[in-house]
Input
Amino acid sequence: MQAQELYSIPLFWGMDDSDIHLILPLVEEVWFPLNSVIFDQDQYADYFYILRQGEVEIRYKPYDGPYLKVAALCEGEVFGWSSVLQHECYTSAAISVMDSSLYRIAGAALSRLCGEHPATGLLLQQRLSQVISSRLNATQSEVIRMLQNGMMSEPGVNGRENGDE
Output
């Protein structure tokens, strides 16, 4: 991987050469074919990912229902942030919905970098908080849409009558 590739990713836009050269050794490229599970919900959260090429869906499975698609990610978007938030497990699943090339960074290594280089760490934390905030707003809109569709459907349409769960 070349430094130029990191500069093209929105998470790293505007970072200077010294920041990029600290991050560069932590990044490895991985490839997932169509319909591969990149990580599953409740799996140990060890990596943070950046989508280089392809498409990835983030899916959440409530305990009482089927998987829900909460985000469709395209090039340059990040996911798997549980690993850098010191969460033990991923809260959702990530699936490649086409052949996909990803960059991944071990969450522990990124946390170490942030501790050893506080200015770079702060910049990364600020950027990541913007991404997370934006994604959560989009997810909330998607959940509202799903609820509206489900609540507005005719009784019995989905094999349910009033009161059936």
In short: The beta strands are 27-32, 37-39, 47-53, 56-60, 68-73, 78-79, 93-96, 100-106. The first helix runs from residue 3 to 7. The chain has four helices and eight strands. Residues 7 and 15 are 8 Å apart (CA to CA).
